[in-house]
Structure formats: structure tokens, C-alpha cells
Specification:
The protein has 304 residues and is mainly α. Helix content is 55%, strand content 4%. The chain is built from 13 helices and 3 strands; from the N terminus they run αααααααβββαααααα. A hairpin with a 5-residue loop joins β2 and β3. α2 crosses α4, α6 packs antiparallel against α8 and α6 crosses α10. The chain starts with 5 loop residues before the first helix and ends with a helix. About 2% of the residues have low confidence.
Length: 304
């Protein structure tokens, strides 16, 4: 991919700085915007369209070309979101007088509900590290990770970034650093606390190196565990537990939220625990079993 000419490059860097300073976006999100918008601006550069001269038709042409490459609707939607944010920023900065991306609509997403584990499947997964024969070297760590993923509903990036100083087990809470550097306190139960404490006292203490810093979950070299390592670990234990669903660490986040809601938890409370800025993001987890919904209606509606 060739490079952006100076006007386009400066536009992109100014916008990315805005995301960091004004909107406190994470490094990962910022890099996603960089990649998507560089491709967009290269297209306009090749079309000899100055950023101030871009019209709605030009944006639609770019999106059509993206669509022709076979991108999924979710990826296409992310690109459109980035483009709309860029032009809104340029409008605020008075670089543009009108916003050519204002009428660009997001593609309709297929309503595929995420896989969720049943309670029995969760129990099988949590016990899977104990089923290894011979026992795995990192059994205590892996058990603690699985327990924590289900207990707190955290993202895998939040789990790998977790430090020991963020554990407030006396109060039953963990401090999580989420998207956009937003912090939240998440309650954890006794099972997860016990598993983590056992891992700290019996395994982690012997894994520590100068590079460990205060990271809670370490790899074999004493460094912070990677997201991919957690992903592969969860897949391995799911197979060992005989679970045939498409499992990832995020599956446990979905399961955490769904089990809470099925148990009668308030949607706003679940939103807070998940770290969602909008209640709309939490509503994807409300795919509660239809028989459960019917039973609630039958039990509580006066005319049921």
C-alpha cells in the first residue's frame, strides 16, 4: 500500500490525536481507526479528491468497492463509523462546511446470537483443568482464569491487563480498566477469589521474573499472558470438557451476562458490570430462553 500525501496524512494524524486527547480512545481502537481511514484516504487520493471536496457519491463509491471485496457487514459498519466520525470532526474543526457522510447508513447486521453455555457446560469447563492426565503445569493459573472470566464477565484484554494491586478481595471486588481507559469495579464471588488466591500463593510466586511487574496472569517466561494464549487455552479446555459449541473467552462474557439476566438481574446493573457505555450494547445479552420469558409472563401478568 502506497503512502498518503501530506494533506491527507496531516488530516489523519490530527483526527487520531483528537481520538486520543479528547475522546480517550484506547490504543487498539485508535489503530483500527488508523487502518480503516488510511485505506479510505488513499482511495480519495487516487481519485484526486481533496478531503474538502469529497462528496457523498465519492463515499458511496468507496463503500461499494469495500463491499465488493466480501467484507462482513460488521467490518463494513466499522469502516463507515470511522468515516462518519472523521467528517464530523472536520466539520467541527471548520475544515468542511458540510458533512458528506451524514446520510451514509450503516449496513444491516445479521442477528446472529452469540453462543452461550448452559450452567452444566460452564461447570464442565471450570472443572476441565482438573481432568488433565497428567495434571498440567499451569493448572492453578488456568483454573483461576476460567473462574474469573465467568465470575466477572470481563473482556480478554481486561483479564490480561489485570494487576494484583487491582484485587480488592476483602471487599469482594476487582478494579477493571476497560475500553477508553474507563475504570469500573466488578464484584467477584468466593470461587474465583479462592482460585486466584491459590494460584498466587502456590504457582505465580515461583513464576515471577523482573519482567513480571504486577501482572496477575503470567506465561511460562514470567511475562504478561497474551490474549491469544487465553483464547487457545479456553478452546483447549472446552474440547476437553466435551463442549461442541464455538467457544472463546468472549463466550464466557456472554454467558456471565445471560445467566445474570435469566436469574432476574437488573439490565442496568449488568450494563455497569460489563462496562458498556450504552444500555443498547447490553441488550444483545437479553436473548433469554423463550420458555423462561413465557413463564415470567404467566407468573406475573394478571391476565395470563
Amino acid at each position: 500500500m502506497h503512502d498518503l500525501a501530506e494533506p491527507y496524512r496531516r488530516t489523519l494524524e490530527n483526527f487520531l490525536n483528537h481520538l486520543s486527547v479528547e475522546r480517550n480512545f484506547s490504543v487498539n481502537t485508535r489503530e483500527s481507526y488508523r487502518n480503516d481511514l488510511k485505506r479510505y484516504l488513499l482511495f480519495m487520493q487516487d481519485e484526486n479528491k481533496a478531503i474538502g471536496a469529497v462528496e457523498t457519491a465519492d463515499i458511496r463509491k468507496f463503500i461499494s468497492e469495500l463491499h465488493a471485496t466480501g467484507l462482513e457487514a460488521s467490518t463494513l459498519g466499522r469502516n463507515i463509523s470511522a468515516i462518519r466520525s472523521l467528517h464530523k470532526f472536520l466539520l467541527i474543526e471548520r475544515t468542511l462546511e458540510t458533512n458528506p457522510a451524514e446520510t451514509i447508513q450503516q449496513p444491516k447486521l445479521a442477528k446472529n446470537l452469540p453462543d452461550v453455555l448452559s450452567l452444566s457446560e460452564v461447570m464442565s469447563l471450570l472443572e476441565a483443568p482438573l481432568q488433565q492426565n497428567p495434571p498440567g503445569k499451569f493448572l492453578l493459573r488456568d483454573k483461576a482464569i476460567l473462574e474469573f472470566l465467568y465470575a466477572a464477565g470481563v473482556r480478554v484484554s481486561e483479564l490480561t491487563a489485570l494487576q494484583q494491586q487491582h484485587l480488592y478481595f476483602d471487599a469482594g471486588f476487582v478494579r477493571i480498566l476497560g475500553k477508553g481507559s474507563k475504570e469500573r469495579l466488578v464484584p467477584v464471588g468466593n470461587a474465583a477469589i479462592e482460585a486466584i488466591t491459590q494460584y498466587q500463593n502456590q504457582l505465580r510466586i515461583g513464576m515471577v521474573t523482573k519482567e513480571s511487574e504486577d501482572c496477575l496472569f503470567l506465561n511460562a517466561r514470567g511475562k504478561k499472558l497474551s490474549r491469544m494464549a487465553v483464547y487457545l487455552m479456553v478452546r483447549e479446555y472446552a474440547a476437553l470438557a466435551g463442549i461442541r459449541k464455538n467457544i472463546s473467552p468472549h463466550t464466557l462474557r456472554h454467558t456471565f451476562a445471560t445467566h445474570l439476566l435469566e436469574g432476574g438481574a437488573d439490565l442496568r446493573a449488568v450494563q455497569e458490570m460489563l462496562g458498556h457505555s450504552s444500555i443498547l450494547a447490553t441488550q444483545i445479552y437479553t436473548h433469554i430462553d423463550r420458555s423462561f420469558i413465557r413463564e415470567v409472563h404467566k407468573t406475573f401478568h394478571p391476565r395470563a
